[in-house]
Amino acid sequence: MFRFLILLASLLFYGANAAKAAEPSARPDGARLYAQRCSACHGADGRGGVGVPLALPAFLSSVDDAYLRKTMRLGRPGRVMPAFTQLADAELESIIAHIRSWPGQKPPKTAPQDRIAGYVAHGQTLYTRHCAACHGAHGEGGHGTGVTLSRPRSAPILAPALNNPGFLAAASDTLIKTTLLNGREGTPMRSFLKQGLKERDINDIVAYVRSFEQLSPPPGARVLESESPVLVRVSPYSVEETVEKVKTAVGAANMRLIRVQTLDQGFVADGKENHDQTIVYSCDFSFLNEALKVDPRVGLFLPCRVTVIRHAGKVQVMTINPKRLSRIFNNAELNDLCEQMYKVYVEILEESVL
Amino acid sequence: MNRLRMLVVFVLLGLGVSAAADELLMARITQPFPEAMNNLQETIRAKGYVVSRVQRVDVGLTSSGFQTAEYRLVFFGKQAEIRELSAAYPELIPYLPLTIVVFAEGDDTLVLATDPLKLGEFFNKPELLKRFGVWEKDVRAIFDDVSRIP
Questions:
Q1: Contact between chains at A165 and B79 (C-beta distance less than 8 A)
Q2: Which residues in chain B touch residue A81, judged by CB atoms under 8 angstroms apart?
């Protein structure tokens, strides 16, 4: 029965992408795929940035290929690392081979042990004492994405979220134990043996970390759902009047008006613009600054923009749905900001058509 | 027990918190920001698109007293496409024109855009899916090309 359920769950997860994951006929170029899919976050040579510094010898020598494979396939829900569901298995393997080709990178010799027994309660006590300061009281990990604006560049790595379903699926007990035993040179992670813990204590911590699987998905792995990609209201006013009301609403929301332009400005000659598609750009720079600290990629949907159109005889006011950003960026730390932005947009829309 | 563990993880990933598929196209350009910006715009034009505007987000931030590295938005598209799509599908307008974020990360420059194919989840019309597919290929090609410029 369990075999069937596991198979079913696996099919649910992978099934939608099965066709795409078919083996391509030519052997994939791992270096090129790494450059395309990984280097933006992990660095061209694996030195890190948004993502962990893969090129750390202490990292790659402690993780096996299965860990890398599952991490790429499953990602880290809510923690920026996406699930590369579109990549074929052969492409994943070629990326792993490329990473393993870097100088000094050797996979671990020990075979992953499926389960390491330990006392969870004792492990929790030790975890609170030795791990929580970096990894969070409940394994939620360090904050921020790790890119330029969110933390000093001297910090080599953010403490991983140990309670993340993606991590728990990818990391074997052996991997967790090895990391605790040896630490990770080049990161703040120190050997717990050298800190005086015994191997059985470390087993208890492993058992406690593994017990996170029994809990509900943590808030740090949550992604907001959005039923619609846009928020829309019908205006009883003309386009010109509605634009003026949007400008007033934007001011009431403490945003600075940046500019008003037509959608086609920059595409057509001056004087030929279609004013039935007008965009009002505005920004709360303090909010923007906070959002960029959390995740510098959010600029993709900034500055704030409200579109006023006349279509089929009706005037409509619309914006993107900020809740979609949560899914796009896969960063749970943005969820509160997305919710805030959603409320602000709804207020502006309501105010504009009042 | 181990099977139960696997099942829990798969179900959590598969149902509750699976929404982590890559929706962003990103690339690292191993050039300083000014060169990368120039090369990006030239590459966009070489693909037949018009750069309609460059939004200097960093200037707005610094003028408001916040520190930031170089950070710009590049808006681009094709006039005929923008006109036709916005007329036929006005709910697409908030996602038009196409946008690329460009920001400095040390001596490198990062560029990113949403994967246009993902719009198909919401705008599921055959003609739109075809258009989103073309955009996705073009944005990937732009990122590939600009990343290869020495």
A1: no
A2: 20
